[in-house]
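Field reference: sequence -> structure
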Amino acid sequence: DVQLVESGGGSVAAGESLTLSCAAYTSSSARHHMAWFRQAPGKEREGVAAIDNAGSATYTYAVQGRFTISKDSAKNTLYLQMNNLKVEDTAMYYCAADAVNLQLARGYNYWGQGTQVTVS
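Structure field:
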């Protein structure tokens, strides 16, 4: 079992930056692949960025060059550095984890509660 707790959301002006964090709590020794998703009101949840156990990252086209996903394995923490934020980045952001490398697919087994990002 894996518990995920996101933090770092907030309200910012367009062009500014935010860094989201996701702390993972697990008693399992299995290493999990992780990702960030977002869901805006009235829209489906979409994959934003994913990172596998080897550290390879995948991004959705809309955030390429602006967002960076990273992880600190020693701290069991996932990050999403978001630069040059746009109004259309406004959404609830969720952290996800799975033993299978799902990249940006939505079938992750473990999800956090979400953290709100609002860009105006």
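Note: The two ends are 37 Å apart (CA to CA).
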